[in-house]
Automatic annotation (TrEMBL):
Residues making up the signal peptide according to the UniProt record: none
Organism: Blastococcus tunisiensis
Main location (coarse class): membrane
Protein name per its UniProtKB record: Ammonia channel protein AmtB
SUPFAM superfamilies associated with the record: Ammonium transporter
Membrane topology: Multi-pass membrane protein
Transmembrane annotation, as ranges: 12-38, 50-72, 117-137, 149-167, 187-204, 225-251, 263-286, 293-311, 317-336, 348-367, 391-415
Pfam families noted in UniProt: Ammonium_transp (PF00909)
One GO-annotated biological process of the protein: ammonium homeostasis
Keywords: Ammonia transport, Membrane, Transmembrane, Transmembrane helix, Transport
Subcellular location: Membrane
Amino acid sequence: MEQFPEQASTNWIMATFIYTFGAVAVLLVLMGLVLVDMGMVRRRNVLDTVVQKIGAAMVGGFGTLLIGYPIWQWQFNQAFGVPSPLWQAVKDWWLGGSFTSTPSRYIDPALLPEADVLQIFLVFFVTFTMATIGLIHTGVVERVKPLPFYVMSFVIGAVLSPLVGYLCWGSLSPLTLRGTHDFDGIFPLYITAGTFVLVLAWRVGPRLGAFRSHASTARPVGHNVGLVGVGMLLILFALPFVTIGSGFIIADVGFFGISFTESGIGVVIVNLFASILGGALTGLALGYARKEATWALLGPIAGLVMGGTLFDVSTAWICLLVGALGPFVGLGTAALMRKAGIDDPKVVPLALGPGIVGALLCGFLEWGTPTGGYIGLEGDYAVGVAEITPWWQLAGVVATVVVVGVPALLMCLLFEKFGGLRVSEEAELVGLDVTQWGVSNFGDDLRPPTGPTGAAQGIAGPSVALPAEPDGLRF
């Protein structure tokens, strides 16, 4: 078999390591989400929350690895004139595809230059999906059944998230070639996750005691909210490496945004932290003013989501100011959610609201900035073929909401008809750790609650026989 040693050039190997680190760093984002939920759920649900989040992320990642990635590659086959572009992408990039399974030195650079880099980018998409699923799960913790959520996670990973990426994220995506601009995955990650959570949280209903008093349980309150700060810092640690993966590194030329916008690694990282710090400052002020620590802890996340479409094309001052608006947008979104009776204090306020507003602001602030295209192509696919505009940013938002929201609603209605989406009231009162796994993450939860302490923890409820703690195991 003919070999192509140019696939192992030093420049391409170095790019492979950079993208590998970016892909693995996304798992730290998932780890941060695990810590956030560990702090914000009630202690009787901690173990089941962690298991369900990690399990769903793995199922969604498998969907992307199996068949999702070819949907994103479809745009490149279209631009390069490959016959039957979607079907060819499937044959090349599904789990058993020729490009997925062949070592790079056996792949002709004329067919696939930088084969190692694109193979690693497949892993980047897998972990990206895992983070998306983890974020979606955060919006429906403590009440959603595992099986329906696992099925939904597979569909998101195999179809929905890659399809949004195909439409809105990439230099040759159909909407990018007309003026829709993204950089940090605002459309396929944050707006996608927020839209899905909005539908799912509406259909699954609020936790017992969330909006109305319940005779058998107290209002849901996180048992250790301080863990939210630890999770947030872990996410912030990972984001610079993830951000670098959201662009093209062209040896001896420079760094470009994912839509082939003129940029630089240093500028992108400075803008990232400007948005983070802007959100942190206003979040801190809101937290103290409202005596709500979660705004102080999660303000940086709202800031980075607000600025995510701007990192590659804007300046630090603009990103700082836009990021500073994030917690205010999040606060307003949270108020709308409470008014609608939808129980999600985290994902829709922090991802969907700031994601949409930030994307639209990008259209106004960078109106006329060239975007789209691919190096070496001409005509409709030339670099800078499109210009960022507010209406094409809106088109990207609408496309994402429709592509994600309609299937989400259909799947919810289907599961409601066949088995339901939500755990039983008895399971929710006793705790999902004991109900699902027969054990508790905390040893004292295995003892029947007595007195006002048990009532304050929201453990009291119907008489249920609790299993004895197994020998040799301590959770």
